[in-house]
Sequence to fold (128 residues):
Amino acid sequence: MKLLTVNFLTCAVKSCKTSAAAFPLHFQDAEVERRETNYNPTFLQNILPRLDWSAIATTAAELGFTDLPATKPESPCETEEEQKTMRDLHTLLLETEVMEGKMVCGNCGHEYKIKEGIANFLLPNHLV
Fold:
C-alpha cells in the first residue's frame, strides 16, 4: 500500500464517521519497502493541493521519515531546495509501500490488517 493512499483513507466503522480522530489511520508493526518509480513532478504538483499535510507528516513520522518540511511545499518549485523536497515527497508518497502490518483507528482502535501490500477494510457485521 503506497503512502499516498493512506492520505485518503479514514476508519470505516460507522461510529467513526463524524470523529476527527478517525483520520489519519496510524501504522503499527509496519514493514516498509521501497519500489522505485519514474519521477513525475507534474503529478506531484497536481496532487499536492489535495493532500492533508498534517496527516502526511503524522504518517511519515510514525514510519521514521523525519525529513518532511513543517509546511506543505508550494508549487511551482523553482529553487534547488524546493525541487529536492519534491523528490523526497515523491519517494515518500509514491515509492514507499507498507507491505505488512496494520493500520489502527485513533478513535475506536479498530485494526485494519495489511498483508502483501493490501489492506483489509472489510468490517465484521457488528461494526457496519
